Amino acid sequence: MKPLLAALLWLPLAAGAAEHHVVIDGMKFSPQVVQVKPGDTIVWENRDMFIHNVTAAGAKSGDLAPGKTWRHVVREKMSFDYLCTLHPVMKGRVEVK
Ligand SMILES: [Cu+2]
Asked: What pTM did the predictor assign?
């Protein structure tokens, strides 16, 4: 994504924006479904002993080593499914209300 476009899409954290945590452990995302609002931040934390990633069309964490976290600000009112491309059975969903 071009820097200008990224800047235009970036929304300051509005009052009331929340932070949601998804733990990656035991080859699972939990909670598997997270419900958020635009402007909220989701933090994925890899507590597993393996490398995992969070991958969707508009959200790509890159590979997360054990102990790493990845923060993602939800900018659009659009729900999406994601998976770990290293272990495609690992799936999750972000529901944006
Ligand atoms: Cu994985």
From this structure: 0.83
